[in-house]
Amino acid sequence: MALLQISEPGQSTAPHEHRLAVGIDLGTTNSLVATVRSGEAITLSDDKGRDSFPSIVHYGQNDIIESGHEAKLHAISDAVNTVVSVKRFMGRTLADIQSQHSELPYVLSPTENGLINIQTRHGNVNPIQVSSEILRPLIALAEKSLGGDLTGAVITVPAYFDDAQRQGTKDAAQLLGIKVLRLLNEPTAAAIAYGLDSHEEGVIAIYDLGGGTFDISILRLNKGVFEVLATGGDSALGGDDFDECISQWIIEQSGYTGDHSPALQREITRVACDAKEQLSFLKVAKLALDLPCGGHWNDTLSREQFNTLIAPLVKRTIMACRRTMRDADLSTDEIKQVVMVGGSTRVPLVRQQVSQYFDKELLTSIDPDKVVAIGAAIQADILAGNKPDADMLLLDVLPLSLGLETMGGLTEKVINRNSTIPVAKAQEFTTFKDGQTAMALHILQGERELVEDCRSLARFELRGIPPMAAGAAHIRVTFQVDADGLLSVSAMEKSSGVQAAIEVKPSFGLTDNEVTNMIKDSMTHAQGDMDARMLAEEKVEASRVLEGLVSAINQDGNLLDEAMLSGIRHAMSLLEQAVVAGDVKAIKVAIKECDTSSSDFAAMRMDQSIKVALSGQSVDEL
Amino acid sequence: MNYFELFALSTSYEIDKTSLKSKYLELQRAVHPDNYANGTERERLLAVQKAAQINDGFETLKNIDSRVQHLLALSGIELAHETQTLKDPLFLMQQMELRETLEDIPHAGDPEQALIEFQEQIKSFIDDINVKFSTLFNDGSQAALQTAAEEVRKLKFMLKLAHEAISLEEQIFDY
């Protein structure tokens, strides 16, 4: 095949340059960052040799923000300004949070879009900002260890996270200017790490019980294909809830009836968590607590008592396993291996119940705390383009059904849970009044029949429908979920071909103003920083676009005729000039121009790769 | 879009499921958005759309009910959004009886067993319909296709019952 060599000034195709990419496990309790180095995925450690960092952020005196181990030191002494387990608040409303947590040491308030703010001495912060503070030192650690700027990161999320929770996680990384290569489901990440390491093939179950979330995923592993058959879980169930059970028991047993100051609450939680951890290897745990006014309380908690306290929670996870197995249309004897992931799978009752349900010995030999970050690092390495020969294919699913509100406050499902993503479905609507030019849609996520029992994702207004008689306009609304599990919606009036304008008002998202303010806040300083960062980001994007086009032309330039090729090359050289001139707006326009001029080429390449795939030949043979 | 062509399979009622699956995986390997993490915005969007289309095609061909509807749609008989009702009094009577049986299951002495029996009964009805459809579709005449469409309408009723039986299972066993 004739290759078209392009070597314009300042353009290097550099196909074998190693790109720096990391996998980040942004956990409820702890977070980790991992990367692939000399072909091996490893977690990165700080200068004290620690690779697991508490997901805690402290808003201290003098505008100082600390996170990780440093923040943990303030968890009890300055509980109100120290945010722990913020992942449990991501994409949640005040009502959700209050119904799940009896007492929290923070002052929470709702934002205009239904999300929450946490009041600290630095003013109000939202869960996205707090999460970005957890990510910040991890990114810094990665850039220091790897010696350069990151190309991007794969960030893991619980498989059962809904759209609002996923979007929030992605926003947290983007606040730091990090390119999110992919949001990867935690159990899927674990399966990648486990599957590539063990070379196991067949159907496996990943039971992932972390600090605040629970996932069960059933996957088929076959020759580099990781196919999620079904997933289920509870994004508000984890080890923190075990702690809360013990905490309530402590409060009852101690007979203490005075005020629960934030510091006392945190201290009780610490004692509870400590007891839980002891009971993973001891039959009886000793508990001691200093009460206000000089009182002191001592007691013991046996493993049997602990089991009774948490039995209803563990049962909920088993019910989710049962439902997920039903969705996968499998019986437990078809499961080859049950892999235990997440710190809370150390609890003996959990192991015993899961083993009993699947009727199998469990695989507990892999490090339940690191495996997710390791899997994410492997995926990041591939997505960054460091392993062009990698033959991995990841097919994940949508965890919760997407639907629309219909008459009478009911939901009608448009895309069912456990559909393989990416997925797109179209639904048709018609007008019911003469001359109607607008229409309102309400998008929901969840399994329940009533609108009020599902999560409201967005309210859309379709505008610009051409005025026609009632019922004459046919509006086709397309729902599309990408590989990250994120939804986008578009609409079109069929008979006239008019693309109806959609005004998206996410019920649980951020307003544009909030986003701008958050980016400003995250920049600690002035406008100059902001401009510099935007320019830097656009330059990175520009070089990505140019690099992509060069390698596309090198590979498939033979698909292009002379005119198309020169059109694309012209757009590329304009982009190069814009980068040199360093004007953000001009770069944006030039990127757009590159995109437009190469759109037919992109479609041709896609069709070509489909043809190749079906013929079972490699490109060279065609 | 003819999904049989997308998967390079012949347009027919019978389908080689192993071949469908392996073609599906080949196609996903080629177009999956993960291959375009460094592509242009246009390429990434195209990849998402193509991968979604391939997923939809795979689901459509894999399941018997959607496959027969797709076959009819390709022959010009669109059932997906139709509002036409069945005019087979015997079938409708049978539906009412089945529905009553389903409603009574929670009150049965052994609801679990009653549910299993009900599900088996529905399955055998579905199998019957599929055999009839296959013969009619292979006949290929316009009249036979119209009758085939009638069978698919019946199939939809049965599948709805099967689906409700699963919901009931969830309720009874409190999933």
Short recap of the structure:
Chain A has 622 residues and is α+β, with helices and mostly antiparallel strands. Chain A contains 15 helices and 27 strands. Chain B folds into two domains: 3-62, DnaJ domain (Helix Hairpins); 89-173, HscB, C-terminal domain (Monooxygenase).
3D architecture notes:
- The complex is a heterodimer of chains A (622) and B (175).
- By secondary structure, chain A is α+β, with helices and mostly antiparallel strands.
- In chain A, 37% of the residues lie in helices and 26% in strands.
- Chain A is built from 15 helices and 27 strands.
- The radius of gyration of chain A is 26 Å and the shape is globular.
- The longest helix of chain B has 32 residues, at 142-173.
- The mean pLDDT of chain B is 86.
- Chain B has 2 domains: 3-62, DnaJ domain (Helix Hairpins); 89-173, HscB, C-terminal domain (Monooxygenase), CATH 1.20.1280.20.
- In chain B, α2 (17-31) packs antiparallel against α3 (41-62) and α4 packs antiparallel against α7.
- Chain B contains 7 helices and no strands.
Spell out the key features of this protein.
heterodimer, A: 622 residues, alpha+beta, 6-stranded mixed β-sheet, 5-stranded mixed β-sheet, 15 helices, 27 strands, 37% helix, disordered C terminus, B: 175 residues, mainly alpha, Helix Hairpins, Monooxygenase, 2 domains, 0% strand
Label the structural class of chain B.
Answer: mainly alpha
Structural class of chain A: alpha+beta
What spatial form of chain A do the alpha-carbon principal axes imply? globular
Q: How much helix is in the residues of chain A?
A: 25-40%
- One letter per element, helices H and strands E, the order of chain B comes to HHHHHHH
Q: Radius of gyration of chain A over alpha carbons?
A: 26 Å
Query: What count of domains describes the coordinates of chain B?
Result: 2
